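Illustration 12: Transporter substrate-binding domain-containing protein.
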Amino acid sequence: MINKKLGLTSLLTVGLLLTACTTSDNKETEKVSEDTKEDTSWSSVEEEGVLTVGTSGTYAPITFLNEENELTGFEVELVRELGEELGVEVEFETMQFDGLLPALRNGQIDVAANDFAITEERKEIFDFVDSHKYSYGSAIIRTEDDGKFESAYDLKGAKIGLGSLTSNYATFAENIGGETTAYDAGVDTILRDILNGNQDAYLNDRLVLQRNVEEFGDDGLMVDEDVKYHSSESALAVLKGNTELRDKLSEALGTLKDEGRVSELSEEFLGADSTQPVDQSEVVSLEAE
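Figure caption equivalent — predicted structure in token form:
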């Protein structure tokens, strides 16, 4: 009996060892398979002849519908020129800003284009084409409040309107200790609420804000030149690992930069050349430090 038990125990031990080895081998095989997986992100686009790009269409002057109800804007036209440079057709899918990166992650789109700032958190999941826009955040305030906010730090406790609670501007507002409200009815609603005192400021990219003020056309609003935060680099986003597609887009972008087309588009839609890094000496970090 003793020998039989020992034999059974030995067999069980060997079985467990074999199972452990098999599991380990499977994991190693899976890892090797992942590491050696062929990147067809560009070749698939090239073969199909279509680059599918997600954008909101509600973030002027980056992406918006013009008076003819046609999609346009700085990044929209930039992507169209990239497609022309690469010899593929560009098809846009419009969706809410908060749905763009999830759509990229699940393969619904090839590229997300909506003034996405490159952050360490986003880089864990996505890759970015070379930067095409450098800027920083600012605020639209009432003209009568000019001088009230001597720096971005003075936004602490202010009533702040936002376009999205998932944007970097929302992150900064939270970090600085602002009282935030998200709007889904468009920028004009936020600006009217600033004028009537329901909000103290609207946070966003300074170049975008300047165009917002100009188009709204009310002297009671201004962009606060003393409020500078979140120095940013914006780029087109692709899914992490889609290196082939990222590099092709970066190569085409480099050509457009050399030809001066990116600067021209920036001047046309943003009112300034945003292709060069900004002076960060007075810019507060995203963490409000």
